[in-house]
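Submission checklist for the structure archive. All mandatory fields must be present; incomplete records are returned to the submitter.

[x] Identifier: NAD(P)H-dependent oxidoreductase
[x] Organism: Pseudonocardia alaniniphila
[x] Residue count: 194
[x] Sequence attached
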Amino acid sequence: MTDTSIRLVVIIGSTRGGRFGPTVAGWFAGEARQRADLDVDVLDLADAALPDRLEPFGAPTPPEVAAVSSRLAAADAFVVVTPEYNHSYPAPLKTLIDWYGREWQAKPVAFVSYGGMSGGLRAVEHLRQVFAEVHATTVRDTVSFHGAWARFGDGGRPLEEAECSAAAKTMLDQLTWWALALREARAARPYVTG
């Protein structure tokens, strides 16, 4: 990593047994790691094991929360890999977002979604509203896998790899632009919420 690298945290949002998220996230992280301008950290919420009950304000921070905090705080940008559950996103993603505040502020978030007919896009639209509330900026383009389980081969690679790689590149180009712009802005004028 160089001083000009973008520190990207790729978040695997599903913790369900038998989940498909690590396949999608593994492919995407591989695409991101091909770029010289990105330093990629994959945060699997199944491994993070964040408590699902938030502590009262002023209470000691649980160790699991502190361990993830440093990774989020160091990030310049985030990519959330999410399935769609009941027309929305998984509860562990909301728990992750709610445990933190400043770690998200004035940083860009992009999405890789997967699911059935909608490809997880309804989950993404719900997440946009939540990330706006924590003062994060979501990028327009997403990578979406409709009928995801039939779109990946045995090696964890998309069957339509060229199209998927092109979509990932477009999204990462937008994300890195926002990450650099917001990092420079935070350095020149620290972000302060009301």
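[x] Structure attached
Curator remark: Helices lie at 21-33, 45-48, 63-74, 91-99, 121-133, 161-188. The radius of gyration is 16 Å.
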